[in-house]
Amino acid sequence: MSSAADQEAVQDPAGTAVEPGRPPGRAAPVTVRTEFTESTEFTTSTGIAAATGAVRAGPRAPVVWPGAPMPLGARFRVGPDGVAGTNFALWAGGAEAVEVCLFEEDGTETRCPLTELTHEIWHGFLPGVRPGQRYGYRVHGRWDPWTGARWNAAKLLLDPYARAVDGTFTLPPEVYGHMRDWPDQHVADTVRDERDSAPYVPKGVVVHDDDDWVEDRRPKTPWADSVIYELHVRGFTKLHPDIPPELRGTYAGLAHPAAIDHLTRLGVTAVELLPVHQFAHEDHLLRRGLHNYWGYNSIGYFAPHADYSASGTAGQQVGEFKRMVHALHSAGIEVILDVVYNHTAEAGELGPMLSLRGIDNRGYYRLQQDPRRYADYTGCGNTLHVVQPQVLRLITDSLRYWVTEMGVDGFRFDLAAALARSMHDVDMLSPFLAVIAQDPVLRRVKLIAEPWDVGSGGYQVGAFPPLWTEWNDRYRDAVRDFWRGALPDVRDLGYRLTGSSDLYAWGGRRPYASVNFVAAHDGFTLRDLVSYEHKHNEANGEGNRDGTSDNRAWNCGAEGESDDPEINALRRRQLRNLLTTLLLSTGVPMLVAGDEMGRTQGGNNNAYCQDNEIGWLDWSLLEQPEWRELTALTARVLKLRQTHPVLRRRAFFSGRAQAPDGLRDLAWFTRDGREMTEGDWYAPAATLGLYLSGRDIPGRDARGEPVTDDSFLAVLHAGADPVAFELPGAPWAERYELVLDTSREDQAEPPGTVLDGGTELTVPARSVLLLRVAA
């Protein structure tokens, strides 16, 4: 029983009437009236709070013509009777009303109702609205978190199809759809916040769809010939001394000849850019005075991140990005984007309301059986519901836009297993993968999966279908373990060095399905891998709890930077070993920007929030002879790879001869010069010989001629002491020429030593030797 007083309606701090017996924030519908060209009445449970900024109403508001439901987004065009304007179209499946809100420089807001509804798309044409116009949406509907309904028209929402974004997400309480600071956090997400968010959130920008780079020619580098260089637009250019200060940290900076010259001298064929979609910073980082540096927190899938623009944020970032792509293409370098379609910056139920949550929470996100909660296969609070047609359309429209209008050549999909889930489980016949496979634009570009997510059954290395390549973390782990002396036997290493046929030799896949890497943005840099055994992430402000503890690293005898010349020499040798192993392996090698010059993050293996010298590339390293030599070695091995097709095979090794008088295309040798037996693969070994026959390469060239090349013997020795290695004699080789020795600090000229087959060669401690079979 309750008293009469308990039955009276009360007001929550958001100003929302709460019915007796109704949970806080679950308010009864209220009727509101907003004046436009003529009075328009909406009945909704959301309500409209008094705007903090000025709201234009009455006869000054523009006329809204019906417009068209396609294409989605804000598209400037010539409308009826030759009148120029902008067509606005927004999918908002369960909404009761939608307003497009136009903003002037002083913050004055004009709200225009979109009254046309076609197949759940609200649309209208606004005459006179031109490129450069800032805008957002207010979407009306029920507030009922218990059923997943979270409409709140007090919150200005970013258009999911916005081509450009002006402003920065700062996440004050006003941008949350619920009362962020509600005393009882257990139910805080159910209490509606009716404060206007418009003064505090970025706005979309209408962009002119002109194509100013139609003469651009894509490099179209075959997968087998590709070398990927993972870089951060801001971090790669921020400290470059030859890039003008006003261009550092921007798309224009990456397009500068000084940046491109380094890439071409190195010999990479593609840059893989860490996320450049518009992203937001997480609240927990802003509270600590940090920012999301890597950008894996997308909120605008069509907009280049505005902070990387040197030319302006009122649409100029689009043209600047296109010019960057054109400059890279002109240098023969492809552009691959790291994309985050698995989740958004709105996080879980306690996250901000920035875009999709306020448009149709249930339509865009995977919800749990309790619809208040989000299914989280990403570790970031939410997961996009890719099975839903409108979500799949958003993603594929975005992908096609970046290919056809922005000129990019491919994508690396963050946590791709989350995109491949059907209703719950990862499904390689999922709608997302099926749509990509049949799309005439997307099936022709480079597609790279990060083949895992954090959900049950999410680890899918080797499982993605043809057309896809994958980040191969099993390659990373095997190579790290070998060079730190932690492999129990050499079975796994053998597969990894030769294209991982155990993972990818099915369904017509090729060795280039494996993107080989030893380091990536996520984890230690290569130099830190040989300088630290434990993470040192204190600067992140999370008590060193963040980042993986499974580093498979060896510090060469001291934790962190050392003054010991022997330790430092050993570390540089290990770097040469790791880089050389990576670049000689079959598959697609991926380097991380700066690893070729000894970049360090001071042991931080999770520098996602370090937009400072920790995360930026230190170009002054090239002034130090030892790091210049490392860069020279990297370029030299890449030149070898480019010159010799036997080092970038298009088919898996068969272990058989291609011709009656040929040799097997692949052979393995122990250090005493005999071919390895099955028992050798199951025994510990620090020394491994790998023979690659250039006379036995399957396939033909573009003119139908057989592909032939030199043959090579690579000797990998991870032991702490020198070892004798007997060079295989006939029929493998009469003589060998030494072309590479990682024990040497100076790599300016090849060793040039010629040795007879059967000779006992002394292999220096911890080194890679590459020998060419001499005629």
Topology, please?
Elements: H1 4-7, E1 10-11, E2 17-18, E3 30-35, E4 39-44, E5 55-56, E6 73-78, E7 84-91, E8 97-103, E9 109-114, E10 116-118, E11 121-127, E12 134-140, E13 143-144, E14 149-150, E15 164-166, E16 203-205, E17 228-231, H2 233-237, H3 251-255, H4 257-266, E18 270-273, E19 277-279, H5 283-287, E20 298-304, H6 316-330, E21 334-339, H7 356-364, H8 389-404, E22 410-413, H9 416-419, H10 431-438, E23 446-449, E24 468-472, H11 473-483, H12 491-497, H13 501-504, E25 514-516, H14 526-529, H15 565-584, E26 588-592, H16 625-643, E27 666-669, H17 678-681, E28 687-692, E29 712-717, E30 723-726, E31 735-741, E32 754-756, E33 760-763, E34 767-774
Parallel strand pairs: 5-9, 17-18, 17-26, 18-21, 21-22, 22-23, 23-24, 24-25, 25-26
Antiparallel strand pairs: 1-2, 3-4, 6-7, 7-11, 8-9, 8-12, 10-11, 12-16, 13-14, 15-16, 19-20, 27-28, 28-29, 29-34, 30-33, 31-32, 31-34
Provide structural commentary:
- It is a single chain.
- By secondary structure, the protein is α/β, with parallel strands linked by helices.
- Helix content is 19%, strand content 21%.
- It is built from 17 helices and 34 strands.
- An eight-stranded parallel β-barrel has the order 17-18-21-22-23-24-25-26. The protein has a six-stranded mixed beta sheet with strand order 5-9-8-12-16-15.
- Helix 15 (565-584) runs parallel beside helix 16 (625-643).
- The longest helix has 20 residues, at 565-584.
- The radius of gyration is 29 Å and the shape is elongated.
- Residues 1-29 are annotated as: Disordered.
- Residues 230-641 form the Glycosyl hydrolase family 13 catalytic domain.
- This is Glycogen debranching protein GlgX.
